[in-house]
Amino acid sequence: MTALKKRVYKIIQPRKSQDLVSTVFDWLIVSLIAINVFVIVLDTFELPKTLSLILRIIDVTTVVIFTIEYTLRLWTADIIYKNKTPFKARLTYAFTFLMLIDLIAILPSYLRLVLYIDLDVLRIFRLLRIFWFFRIKREYIKSLSTIFDVFKKKALSLFFSIFIIFTLMVIASVLMYNAEKDAQPEVFKNALSGLWWSVITITTVGYGEIYPITAMGKVLGAFFSILSIGLIAIPTGIISAGFIERAREERMNAKGNKRFCPYCGKDVEE
Amino acid sequence: MTALKKRVYKIIQPRKSQDLVSTVFDWLIVSLIAINVFVIVLDTFELPKTLSLILRIIDVTTVVIFTIEYTLRLWTADIIYKNKTPFKARLTYAFTFLMLIDLIAILPSYLRLVLYIDLDVLRIFRLLRIFWFFRIKREYIKSLSTIFDVFKKKALSLFFSIFIIFTLMVIASVLMYNAEKDAQPEVFKNALSGLWWSVITITTVGYGEIYPITAMGKVLGAFFSILSIGLIAIPTGIISAGFIERAREERMNAKGNKRFCPYCGKDVEE
Amino acid sequence: MTALKKRVYKIIQPRKSQDLVSTVFDWLIVSLIAINVFVIVLDTFELPKTLSLILRIIDVTTVVIFTIEYTLRLWTADIIYKNKTPFKARLTYAFTFLMLIDLIAILPSYLRLVLYIDLDVLRIFRLLRIFWFFRIKREYIKSLSTIFDVFKKKALSLFFSIFIIFTLMVIASVLMYNAEKDAQPEVFKNALSGLWWSVITITTVGYGEIYPITAMGKVLGAFFSILSIGLIAIPTGIISAGFIERAREERMNAKGNKRFCPYCGKDVEE
Amino acid sequence: MTALKKRVYKIIQPRKSQDLVSTVFDWLIVSLIAINVFVIVLDTFELPKTLSLILRIIDVTTVVIFTIEYTLRLWTADIIYKNKTPFKARLTYAFTFLMLIDLIAILPSYLRLVLYIDLDVLRIFRLLRIFWFFRIKREYIKSLSTIFDVFKKKALSLFFSIFIIFTLMVIASVLMYNAEKDAQPEVFKNALSGLWWSVITITTVGYGEIYPITAMGKVLGAFFSILSIGLIAIPTGIISAGFIERAREERMNAKGNKRFCPYCGKDVEE
Q1: Closest CA in chain B for residue C201
Q2: What ipTM was reported for this prediction?
Q3: Cβ(C225)–Cβ(A226) below 8 Å
Q4: In this complex, which of C236, C266, C268 lies closest to A240 when CB atoms are compared?
Q5: Chain B residues near residue C207 by CB distance under 8 angstroms
Q6: What is the pTM of this model?
Q7: Handedness of CA C110, C111, C117, C122 (dihedral sign)
C-alpha cells in the first residue's frame, strides 16, 4: 500500500516531478479546469436542452474527478508532514490555501445536491488552480514566482497602503454625502452612496452615474481626484521597489557574495 | 499628584508602553472610534426613533470620553516638553497634528450644543486617529512608518509635482472653456466649468457628464489626456524612488557601514 | 549580379548604412508610409469622386512600391543567412516579425483584387514599419532600443502579470453576472457581459454604460476596483525595475567592470 | 548708462540675486501673474459693467507692466551673451523658452488692439511664468529642479514612449472604426471618431459617450484597454528610473567618488 501511496503522491502532488505520468496528469487537470470554466461561462447563456444536458454531464464528470483528486491528495498528505499523525497531517494540509480553494470549488455541486443551495457561482474559483500548474513547469517558474514572492514580501505594506486609501475613501464618503444630499437626494441617499462614489472616483474608474453637482461637492471631488494620483502611487511604488530589491537579491545570490575585504578577509555583504 | 500624573501619562499618550493598562486603553479608544464612525454612517439613514435615540446616546458618550481623554492629554503635556513652562508646553502640544485632528473631531458636538451650528460632518475626521493606534503596535510599526516616512521625506517634491499638475489643469481649463463655450454654453458656463472638466479628465476619472464636442475641443482633450500619462507618472516616480532609497538606507543601517578601505582604514559608505 | 545584389542589399535592408542612397531610400519609405496612413484615414470620410480616385491611385502606387521593396528584400535575404541555402534563407527571413508585418500590410490590396475580400482595414498595420526607420538613425537608436529591450527582457514576466489580471477579470465576470443578472437582465445578459464589465472596470476605463446597481454588485465592484490599483501596479513595477536594471547594465558596460579584488586580482562584478 | 543697465539687469533677470529690490521685484511679478490669471478666469463670468471695467483696467495695467519688463529684459540681454553683438544677443535671448512664453502671453492684448483678432485665451500661458519664480528661491530650487532635470534628461525616451502609444492609438482607431461603423454610423463617423475613442480609452479617461457595442468592437476594446496598462507603465517606468538615477548621482557627488582600489590607487567610480 505504501509503495502505491508513494507513487500516487508523486503523481498527484503539484511538485517538480518531471516524469511522464506526472506531466500527463498535470496537463489533464489543467484541461479539466479550462473545460470547466468554459462550461461555467456557457451556463450563463440560453441554450438548447441537449447542449444543457451535455454541459451538466461534463460538469458532473469534472466535479467527480476533482473530488477523487482532492481525496487522493488528502490521503497522501501524511507523506508531506512526516512528523505529525496522519490525521493531524491531513487536517493541516486541508487548511492550506490550495486545498481550501479546491474545497470552495467542488463544494457548490454537493451543496446543490444535498441542501438545494445554489452557490454554483463559486465554481469559478477553480480557475485559480491554473496558477499551481504554472508553478510546476520549470521554464515558467521563475517569472511567476517572482511576482508572487514580491507580493508575499510586501504584503503588510500593501495592506496598510490599501487601508490608508480606504480610510480616506470613508472620510470622502461622509463629506460628499453631506455636500450633495440636499441637491441630489435620490442619488446620494446615505453615506453608503457616498462610499460608492468615493471608491469609484478615487480608483479613477468614474462610471458617471454618480457625481457632484454642487460647488462644494465639486471642490471635494476635485480635491479627492487629485489626491488619488498620490494615493494610487503608493502601492505602485511599494511593488516597484519590491521588484528592484528582488533583482538585487538575485544578483547577490548569483555572485555568491564575492565581496570581501582583502585586508582582513572578512566578508562584506552588499 | 505627580505620580498619578506620570501614571496617567504612560497610559494616555500613544507611546510604546506595552503594559496591560496601556494596551487595554488603546484598544478601548480604537473601539470607540470604530463605534463612532459606525454611528456617523448610520446617522445618514432613515431610522426609527428608538434607534436614533440610542445612536445619540452612544455619540454623546463617545464625545464625553474623547473630551476627557483630550483634557488628560493636555494635562500631561508638560511631561513631554520638560524645558517649557506647563502653559507653553500645553499650548505647543495642542497645536501638534494629532491634537488638532482630535479638536476638529470633538468640536462639532459642542458647536451644535452651544452655537447651533451643524458641522457634524467633521466628526468623520476622528477616523484619522486610527493611524496613531497602528503606529504603537510594534509588529505593524515598520510597514506603516515606512509609508509615512517616505511621504514626509518627499513632501516638497510631491507638493511641487501636484503644483505643476494643477497649473496645467488651470491652463487647460481656460483653453477648453474658450473652445467649447459656443457649442455647449450650458455645460461650459465659465472657466470653473473648464476647471472641473480638466481636473476630472487629467486625473482620468472621466465621469462623462462634461466633455468636448468641437474639433478644437477634442484636439485639446486628446492632448491633455495623453499629457496626463506623463503628469501622473511624476508623483508615482517620486514615491517609487522614495521607497527604493529607504530600502537602501535600511540596508546600510543594518550592515553598520562595513565597507572600508583596508589600505587606509577609512570608511567608504555606499 | 552579385555586386548589384550587394548594392541593393545595402540600400534596402534597414541596417546602419549611412551613405546617401540608403538614407534617401529610408526617408522615401517613411514618407510613403505616412502618405499611406493619411490615405487610409481619408478613406473613412465621404469624399468627392475626383479625390477618391486620386487616393486610389496613391494607394495602388504605394502598394506597388512596397511589393517591389518586399520582393527585393526577399531576393537579398540569402546574404543575411550565409549558412543556409538561398531558399531556406528566404523562407526564414519571410517569417521574421518585420517581414510578416509587411506581408499583412500589402496583402489586403491583393486579396481585394483577386478574392474580392475586403480586409483593407489591415492596411493600417503598415504604420508599425515606422519603428524600423527610427531604429536606424543613430541619434534615436539608444532611446528607442532601450524601450524595446526592456520589453523583450521582461516579456515573460509581463505576460504572466497580464495573465493574472485576466484570470481575476474572468472570476469577477462570473461573480458580477451572478449578482446583477436579476436586477439588470438586459445589461448583464451573460458571462460575456460580465467580462466586458470587468475589463472596462479593472482597467479603470469605466465608460459608464454597464455598472452594478445591487448592493452585492456594488460590494463586488468596489472590491475589484480597489484590487485594480494593486493589479495595475504589477506591470508598472516590472517595467520600472526593467528600466533601472538596464541603466545599471549600461553603467557597468561603460566602466568595463573595473571592480577587482586587489589582493588576488580576481574580478568582482557588481 | 552701463551701471544703470547692470543694476536693472540684476533686478529683472530671474537669477539668484538675493538682495531686497530683486526679491521685491520677483514677488511683485508673481502677484501680477496671480492677479492676471484671476482676471482671465473672472472674464468668463457674466459681470456687471463696473466690475468688467475694473477688470479691463487691471488687465491693461498688467500688460503694460509685462511689456515694460519684457523690453527691459531684451535691453539687458547683451549682458548675458557677452560674446555676441547686442543685436544678436537680443535675438538669441528673444527665442529662449521663457521669452517666447512671455511673448505669447502679452501679444494677444496687442493683437486685439491692432488687428481685432481675439486670441485673449492665450493670456493664460502667463501662468507658466510662475515656475521661473520658484526656481529662484533657494529653498525650493532643489525639489523643483529635480523634477525638471529628470524630464530634460529623459525627454527623448519619453517622446518615443508617447510616440509608440500614439501609433498604437492610430492603429486602434482604424480597427475600431471599421468594426463599429455599420452598427453606430452616427457615433463612429470616420477614422477621427475612432481616434477620439482610442485616445480617451487608452488613457483610461473613458467618458462613456463613445464605446463599442458590437462583439468585434468589444474584443478590440478589451484588447486595447488591457494593452493600455502596459503602455501607461512605460512613461511611468522611465520617469521612476530617472528619479532613482538622479538620487544616485547626488549621492556620488556628495561623496566625491571616494571609491578606489587601494592596491594600485586607481579610481573606481561606481
Answers
A1: B205
A2: 0.83
A3: no
A4: C236
A5: 208
A6: 0.86
A7: negative
